[in-house]
Amino acid sequence: MSLRIVSLGKGIPAHRVSNDDLAAFIDTSDEWIRTRTGIESRYVCRDESLTDLATAAATEAIERAGLAPSDIDLVIGSTFEGDYLTPSLSCCVAERLGTQCPAFDLNAACTGFIFALEVAAGFVERQKAKRVLIVCAEMMSKHIDWHDRSTCVLFGDGSAAVIVEPGEALKYISISTSPNSEMLSLPVGTGNSPFVHHGKTKGFLAMEGQKVFKFAVNVGAVELSKAMSALGMTPEEIDYFVLHQANKRIIDSIRAKVGQPEEKFPMNIQRYGNISSVAIPLLLLEMWESDKLKSGDVLFLSAFGAGMTAGSCVIVWG
Ligand code: ACO
Question: Is the distance from the beta carbon of residue 204 to the nearest atom of ligand 1 less than 6 Å?
């Protein structure tokens, strides 16, 4: 297939918020959050903009690859919403980096990285781009209702960037949508138009937690079996299952269905919470930095998100 990952970078806010910090102003506890989600802390923007975080992630990825911004042929941003609805986050990052290549955002919620990888593969295969910079970035703290304990404890802010080039590492990729605007939604409102009859104000992220949970566990197992039958592989041949970091219990439930050992399911949700499409590239970066990833390791990446979107890929490291 068409591409390989050559570098990664991250941009994380300075301010860490523990479960106890949350319990100081909402009716929750460290014990509830840990046992129901696996989350111990998350990082939240105070002084940083989303463009700051995304530019930091992109710059680190470019420098680690030994490249210059002018070597990038395409910037794809993955976000619910950048610092502006327009220009896009990727345009803001491109301006800071000084690139002159096309830049646009896509929004597939938490599945955004897999969707971006699929789009990047298309550009690379058609030889419209050689090096693609994918920047996932999310300021979940501006989308959640900090008075709603059932959602605000789950999320965090951050960014992760990935550079891909032509290569043979991507063995399989699949994206899908099961349309549903009720299970997980974030209304943007209708502004102050005097003509609108169904006026809505900007809302907060709302979700039907248990339905999302069931969707996530089911789709994770289905995505894996689709990938395995397409490649003629078994789960035993996968070295790491790099899954969206939304809830440790979701990952544990998928692991129980797959019947593979715990050490094949890396996690960093305990430190970051759910950062939407940032989760998978950030986890990959940390595995890379800690020398966990060896050349030739076979990785199964899989995510789900609002939409409801889902996606997975099998990629060989190195
Ligand atoms: N602290 C203390 N108690 C709480 C909290 C909290 N933070 N949140 C909810 N509770 C209470 C509820 O009020 C309820 O109390 P009650 O029994 O008196 O009514 C009780 O805990 C149980 O609530 P449930 O909603 O049944 O808890 P559940 O075990 O389902 O866990 C959770 C909730 C963590 C949200 C779970 O359903 C989940 O993880 N769902 C998936 C969420 C997810 O993955 N979202 C991804 C978003 S992806 C994207 O695109 C943004």
Answer: no
